[in-house]
Automatic annotation (TrEMBL):
It comes from Massilia agri. Residues 148-368 form the Sigma-54 factor interaction domain. SUPFAM superfamilies: Homeodomain-like (SSF46689), P-loop containing nucleoside triphosphate hydrolases (SSF52540). This is Sigma 54-interacting transcriptional regulator. The lineage of its organism: Bacteria, Pseudomonadati, Pseudomonadota, Betaproteobacteria, Burkholderiales. Keywords: ATP-binding, DNA-binding, Nucleotide-binding, Transcription, Transcription regulation.
Length: 499
């Protein structure tokens, strides 16, 4: 039995189950940050999408659509065809543009199953623009819940449910893994409710000791227990007329669970040592990352808390949101770092057991590495490689990924091989490392010691300016002229010429 078997949840889920999903492309990363989060949404079946520099049009809700436009995107179309079984085939363009899926370079047409599209597939075009191919169960909609960032169906659905339940006085149970934003959702429910002018009182139930939990929640009269020299106001009294948020409700001490049930049912509670009940009109919002059905939890209390159940989606279930989340998290911290498209693709394809909270911590580490002049990798930042890469595509004859290059010892590579790999891969470090069969950190070390490859910070501004003019502003061509990594050159040029 699941929570929704016996509680009210949003009727929007019924609409989701009854209609065919829409095939969508969301811009996860683009050299123009304003483009991140724009979407193209196709029809419900039989879609054919021809994706190139000039089509289709991507847009934010209510704004004018624009093509991808970037010079790294081929004029020849990449073709996506959806069949009656919701399988999607992808045919590469007749051009040298590099196309990657979840970090792997493609050389042949591939097919995605409906389940793989539901998981979200990360496409990198021309090593510059990152897209997510995914389903949409709702049309794009503006974000009207501050703090809950996202452009995909799951995020839109959560915001719709918050608007719906905020207008009521129902108790709300927020369910989801750690880091999914349950406290942000609780604060949004309060802010959008008729109680917004009242207090919002939050408590972590795991931090309440068995002996003092009742006192903290319900208060105590003077002299109620040894050391109680004065009356103590409890959290229910503090939240009167507002909202009481009980985080980690699954860890509430067993002794106070029946007391909580009584307070929720009638609004009445009795402070420790008091001779009569008091009342609170506080609205209860609780949160848990546990399965409270399976836990040793008071089931009557659980049923009362489940007036409305809101499930917070996992980050790995909404990869299309990673780009806008990155932009928002960097903005919050005042971080101006320019993330490489290859790193963003890795971040979007990662499974994030710690969800948005973990992504935030990783971005802080990435910004530190970039400030020190390094080029961060997912392996450095997270400590483990993506599990998604090897399982990304369906194992059938037409699903052909570039054969993995055998791993090699960096010490066995000659300077000529390193130079050839960089030149043959548009001076892109990730692609050259894949071609050589070594890790990106290993390639960085080889580049530092290479006699013919230059570090951008050592190249004079005038030399870069002349090379940029000779290459008509094309970073890859400029990098080839200067024999320096393209992404690092792009960052240096932006620092030199910010406008």
């Amino acid at each position: 039995m699941t929570y929704s078997d016996f509680t009210l949840t949003s009727p929007l889920y019924d609409l989701e189950n009854g209609a065919a999903p829409l095939l969508a492309l969301t811009i996860v990363w683009h050299p123009d940050r304003a483009r991140i989060g724009e979407q193209f949404v196709g029809g419900a079946g039989g879609d054919v999408i021809e994706l190139n520099r000039f089509a289709p049009l991507f847009m934010h809700p209510g704004r004018e659509g624009l093509p991808l436009g970037h010079g790294a995107i081929s004029r020849q179309p990449l073709r996506l065809v959806r069949d009656a079984s919701d399988r999607v085939s992808m045919t590469l363009p007749a051009s040298p543009m590099a196309v990657e899926v979840n970090g792997r370079v493609l050389t042949h047409p591939i097919h995605f199953s409906a389940g793989q599209i539901a998981d979200g597939q990360i496409l990198t075009l021309g090593r510059a623009v990152v897209l997510c191919l995914h389903w949409m169960q709702r049309l794009p909609a503006p974000n009207t819940v501050p703090g809950l960032i996202g452009v995909g169906s799951a995020s839109i659905g959560v915001r719709e449910q918050i608007h719906m339940v905020a207008r009521t006085s129902l108790p709300v149970l927020l369910v989801g893994e750690t880091g999914t934003g349950k406290e942000i959702a609780a604060r949004a429910i309060h802010a959008l409710s008729g109680r917004a002018q009242g207090p919002l009182v939050a408590v972590n139930m795991a931090a309440l000791g068995e002996s003092m939990a009742a006192c903290a929640l319900f208060g105590a009269v003077e002299g109620a227990y040894p050391g109680a020299g004065a009356a103590r106001e409890g959290l229910f009294a503090q939240a009167d007329g507002g909202t009481l948020f009980l985080d980690e409700i699954g860890n509430a001490p067993a002794a106070v669970q029946p007391m909580l049930l009584r307070a929720i049912e009638g609004g009445g509670y009795r402070p420790i040592g008091a001779s009569e009940d008091r009342r609170s009109s506080a609205r209860l919002v609780a949160a848990s990352d546990q399965d409270l059905d399976a836990a040793a939890f008071n089931q009557a209390l659980l049923h009362r808390l489940e007036g409305f159940v809101l499930r917070m989606p996992l980050l790995r279930q909404r990869r299309e949101d990673v780009g806008v989340l990155i932009v928002d998290l960097l903005r919050q911290q005042g971080i101006e770092a320019e993330l490489p498209a290859a790193l963003v693709a890795e971040l979007a394809a990662h499974d994030w057991p710690g969800n948005v909270r973990q992504l935030f911590n990783v971005l802080q580490r990435a910004a530190l590495v970039l400030r020190e002049g390094g080029v961060p990798t997912l392996e450095q930042l997270v400590g483990s490689a993506r599990a998604k890469v090897e399982e990304a595509l369906e194992p059938e004859p037409v699903v052909t990924l570039e054969t993995a290059v055998a791993r090699r010892r960096p010490s066995k590579l000659s300077d000529g091989e390193v130079l050839e790999a960089m030149a043959g891969n548009d001076w892109n470090i990730q692609a050259a490392a894949q071609a050589l069969g070594i890790s990106r950190p290993s390639l960085y070390k080889l580049l530092e010691d290479h006699p013919d490859i230059r570090r951008p910070e050592t190249i004079a501004e005038d030399d870069i300016a002349r090379a940029m003019a000779a290459s008509a502003g094309d970073i890859e061509r400029c990098a080839a002229l200067l024999k320096t990594p393209a992404e690092a050159l792009r960052r240096r040029w932006r620092l030199l010429r910010p406008n």
